[in-house]
Each structure stands twice: as C-alpha cells, then as structure tokens.
Design goal:
alpha/beta; 2 domains; single chain; binds zinc ion; Nucleotidyltransferase, domain 5; binds 5'-O-[(R)-(carboxyoxy)(hydroxy)phosphoryl]adenosine; 332 residues; globular
C-alpha cells in the first residue's frame, strides 16, 4: 500500500483463504487457524512484496492487526510483523481491526471523501455490528452497537440451523436469491425501540423455533424451496433492521454520507436496501468494494498509512489486544 495523505494506492493484495480448512467443522477451529497462519504467512508476505515489485528496504513501516480477534491468529501475524520490523530496523504499527474496516470504503477514493465531511459508517462483521459517526477529522464515535450477537453471527447461526455450509453469510445470501422473503415473518429486532443499538439473539431463537416446528410437521431441510424461503426471510429481517437503524443514524446526526464496511457488507440485498434508503434521504452511499469487505490486509495497511502519517508508532513491546477496545483506542 502506498499512501500520500490524499490517496491510497494498492500495490498488491494477496489473500490465503482458510474456508476449506474450517468448513467441515462449521466454524473456525483455533488450532487449525494458528497452524495455517504459521504455514502460510511467510509465503504470502513474500508474494505480496514480489507482486508489488518492492523489496523490504524501501518500505517505510510494517503493520499488523493487533485485535480484536482470535488471539492465537493475531499472535502469529503481530509477532511476524514485529520480527520483520526489528530485523529490517523499520517502525512497527499494530492496527485496530475495526479501524481497518472503517477506512475500507475510502480506499478507492481521494481524501475529499473523508476530509471535512461528516459520515456515518455501518460496520457489520462476524464479531461487530456498529453505527459509527466519523467526524470531519476522521475521529470515530460509536452511536450504537449490538447488545448480543453481531449481524454476521446472526447469518452464521441461522445458516447452521438451516443446514447450510460455513461461512453462513454467503450461503444464506445464495439460498435467499430464489426465496420468498415474506413467507416467514421473523422479528425485526429493536425497531420498536428508539435508540441505535441492535440485538440479534431473538432472531436466532425465532429461526430455531420456526425450523423445529416445520421439521416436526414433516418438512425436510433438503427441501430447496423451503430453505430458500427461510433464508430469504431471515436475510430480510436482518437487512430491514440494519437499513432502518442506519436511516435513523443519518437523520439524527445530519450526516450526508453513509459508508458500509465489514464482512456482511458483501451482502447484495443489504447494499441494495441501504442504497435505496440513502437515495430517499438524498444522502450519498459509499460501500466498501465487495472484495475488501471480509477481513483483509489491504484495509489494515490503509489504516496503518493513515495513522503513520499522523505520527503514530507502536513499540516492539506492543502486545495484541484480542478483546474489543473502546473507540477511543482505535486510532492510538
Ligand atoms: O469482517 P469479517 O470478515 O470478519 C470479522 O471481523 O468478523 O466478517 C465475517 C462475517 C461472517 O459472519 C460472514 O458470514 C459474513 O461476514 N458474511 C456475509 C456475507 N459474506 C460474509 N454475511 C451476509 N452476506 C454475505 N454475502
Ligand atoms: Zn473483520
């Protein structure tokens, strides 16, 4: 990543997916994730430099994610980054995962998009569901967050109940394409309450109760029609909730830009719903590019560039932060 303070330039982006490793288990297995990180990271780092036609001596700063996330996986990447920085005598930056997501919608736009404009960001991933206000200096303030499950978690858990493969979000959105979103009336959590917080655990329970009742009546989960209708109805409940809360956040803050980030941002129905809502409000909709929605190194490099130019450095003694920090810590 090259960053001059006004514009990001992605020089190379290499990704090693572990989805096939974890799929048979229906979720991430920490030991296997650690083993794959150790096995794959050196080669991925080398390929990234080769693709960018760069060698380490010309690099200004080495960065890695410091958290929040799976501790064992963070440990591998963070330690690797610190070792490279130490050996090459380069500064090191440990970056907050959420700052990476927050900055991701801006990567292919110039600074005009984030300098001097108030934005609201809907950040929806497997671990987080947040509405964040980004003031003119890019300083984040959390407006609302989930009280229990994250939106991605709701997709993943619903997918498991419907017998769909891991990762659940893409599987639900694929199945939903052929489905009827109004066949099952799942709850739109928290819409009757005024604030900007979310809660998705009730939705998961509703999906379980509905599915168990259908199975008792003799239905089968290999009934493609039924699973598609259930998937479409779950997706509609999640999307409606996210769109309505985002609308309220725009109205309350007066911001004229809505950005969308995090793994769930890949969901086409969510993107379409938010786009429509923004059009109605006369606001601009700025979603992350779908290939940069799920976790990736490009967004971490962008966040690192942003912080580096503002003078931030982490010491080599910095430790990982697996638990979520408050937004105050995102940029420090
Ligand atoms: O940001 P991310 O890669 O990891 C975390 O930081 O958690 O987000 C992963 C989440 C998973 O829950 C996955 O099911 C969800 O993003 N996801 C989707 C889609 N693609 C990924 N959810 C709904 N629709 C999708 N197309
Ligand atoms: Zn993430």
């Amino acid at each position: 990543m090259r960053f001059d303070g006004r514009r990001f330039e992605v020089l190379s982006a290499v990704r090693a997916s572990q989805d096939t490793t974890h799929r048979p288990y229906g979720g991430v297995v920490p030991e296997l994730a650690t083993r794959d990180h150790v096995r794959l990271l050196p080669a991925v780092a080398r390929r990234t430099l080769e693709d960018a036609r760069l060698s380490l001596p010309v690099v200004d700063v080495v960065a890695a994610t410091r958290g929040p996330g799976l501790a064992v996986a963070l440990m591998v990447g963070h330690t690797f980054g610190k070792c490279v920085a130490a050996v090459m005598d380069k500064p090191f930056l440990g970056v907050n995962h959420l700052h990476g997501h927050l900055i991701s919608p801006f990567i292919f736009h110039s600074a005009d998009y984030w300098d001097g404009r108030d934005c609201v960001c809907l950040l929806v991933s497997g671990g987080h569901t947040m509405l964040v206000f980004l003031g003119k200096q890019g300083i984040p303030r959390v407006l609302g967050t989930t009280r229990d499950d994250a939106a991605g978690e709701a997709f993943d858990k619903a997918a498991r109940l419907l017998g769909l493969p891991y990762p659940g979000g893409p599987a639900i959105s694929r199945a939903a394409q052929q489905g009827d979103p109004v066949r099952f009336d799942f709850p739109r959590p928290m819409l009757s309450e005024p604030g900007l917080d979310f809660s998705f655990s009730g939705l998961k329970t509703a999906v379980r109760v509905q599915t168990e009742s259908l199975l008792r009546q003799g239905a089968q989960l290999d009934d493609v029609r039924l699973v598609s209708d259930l998937a479409a109805s779950v997706q509609a409940a999640i999307v409606d909730t996210l769109v309505e809360k985002s609308r309220r956040a725009l109205v309350q803050t007066g911001a004229r830009v809505l950005t969308l980030a995090g793994g769930v941002a890949a969901n086409a129905s969510l993107r379409a719903g938010l786009e429509r809502m923004c059009e109605e409000l006369g606001a601009e909709f700025l979603p992350v590019r779908p290939d940069l929605s799920t976790d990736n190194a490009v967004m971490i490099a962008a966040a690192a560039g942003w912080q580096f130019l503002r003078g931030r450095r982490s010491g080599l003694e910095e430790e990982i932060h697996p638990q979520p920090d408050g937004a105050d810590d995102w940029l420090t």
